[in-house]
Amino acid sequence: MADLLEKIKNWKFPWKEIAMGGEDDNLTQLAPDLPDSQQALVRKQMQTCLEAKGGEVSARSRAAQLGQAYLNLNETGRIRFLNILIDDFATDQTRVDEALKAYQSAQDAETRQTGENELRRALEPARMKLLRQFNALPQGVKFLVDLRADVMKMSKKDSRLKVLERDLKDLLISWFDVGFLELRRLTWSSPASVLEKITEYEAVHSITSWNDLKNRLARDRRLFAFFHPNMPDEPLIFVEVALVNGMSDNVQELLDEDAPLLDPEEADTAIFYSISNAQAGLAGISFGNFLIKKVVAHISKDMPNLKNFATLSPIPGFTKWLDQTLAEGDSTLLNPKERNALKKASGQKGPKGGLKHLLETASWKDDPQAADALKEPLMRLCARYLMDAKRKGTRPLDPVAHFHLSNGARMERINWMGDISKKGMAQSAGMMINYLYKLKDIEKNHELYSLDGKISASSQVKALKKG
């Protein structure tokens, strides 16, 4: 919550002059926790916004005042503010009942259509009209995106806010249709403000310095992002690409700032090594699959020398699943040979020795005997996790696997010690996976996965699973 409050401080300035034209300055005097005695002022301003008197300039001023008032509140005040919006500006039940009765009693197609249109309008809560007014404000769309992120967090404390979160999601889905989005390639010459946001929003492999960022924008690298016309300086989602020879198996080597640059014309493979959603308020509004396909199409046209398109992806849920599986006492996890090797490597006998004991030893990756003993069982279990562990029905438990499989990729190769960072060791025991986007198979793989839950996997992954 503190991070969000820090970000939205900048929103006050573009609205300041607009809000100054408002009719009521009382909103600037609200206490941060919005006590009962001041809630009537907020309710009145919301109603005035809905009445839309005085033309477009006045409407923008009132919306700006209301938005500025919300930004000045603390968390308690914001929850109270939003509950006013929920309670007092919901659907008009009398209007809904009348519209439903008219629709049900319609005697012909034309009357039925008229009744259906009226019922649709009646079912929309009044607060939706108010929320749409922010679209006309500078950074108004960004305000609503981050408002949803705010509501998603606060709904954990007040579940009544979930209804507003759904309203905001419906609104944003209509505004963020992929047809409205612009794909841009970012370079070292792109605006510094945008590059700073890329550094801030990178969620897979943190950007540690300007030199690190510059390396990711070098001649053998590509970075593409989706932008919305009403948020031209805010990346929505972005993908980082490395142009290499062969399929990369280690992210530290891929991000090595001292590695020699490759002539892009000599590369045969594009590795998608980081995909980050930049806006928490757009969670559940999917356009990542369109980003991958557009980037593949763009790079293919620009660089016909490329033969392969693949990812070097994290496996974020593996160790959590493994811990739970070990706690359940699954006797099929290890064979006798592996059990003996693990006990020997751990230097322990009896129940204390073995897989769990070694994994809890922070330095096991630097111990050759321990690493050798762990490699075979961990890679097999990782393949089992990726292919067999499910969340809902046929959907893989691993979210990254679901994302790429639903886009038509194939599980190509599990890489031992692919990410030896602290994060990589914690979430996947250092393993990473390549998902291969084979252009001629993308649609077929997508359909088989979407319709039947069938996972496309290489012989390497299948063989690992069998052990």
What attributes characterize this protein structure?
single chain; 5-stranded mixed beta sheet; 7 strands; elongated; alpha+beta; 467 residues; 9% strand; two-stranded antiparallel ribbon; disordered N terminus; 22 helices
Concise synopsis of the structure shown:
The protein is α+β, with helices and mostly antiparallel strands and 467 residues long. It has helices at residues 2-7, 12-19, 36-51, 55-71, 75-88, 93-104, 109-123, 126-132, 140-154, 162-175, 192-201, 210-216, 251-254, 288-302, 318-328, 336-346, 355-359, 368-388, 399-406, 422-428, 442-452, 459-466; strands at residues 182-185, 221-227, 237-244, 269-277, 308-311, 410-415, 432-436. Helix 14 links the parallel strand 4 (269-277) and strand 5 (308-311).
Description:
With 467 residues, this protein is an alpha+beta fold. The protein is built from 22 helices and seven strands. The strands form two sheets. The protein has a five-stranded mixed beta sheet, covered by helices on one side. The protein has a two-stranded antiparallel ribbon with strand order 6-7. Strand 4 (269-277), helix 14 (288-302) and strand 5 form a beta-alpha-beta unit. The longest helix has 21 residues, at 368-388. The radius of gyration is 27 Å and the shape is elongated. The two termini are 46 Å apart.
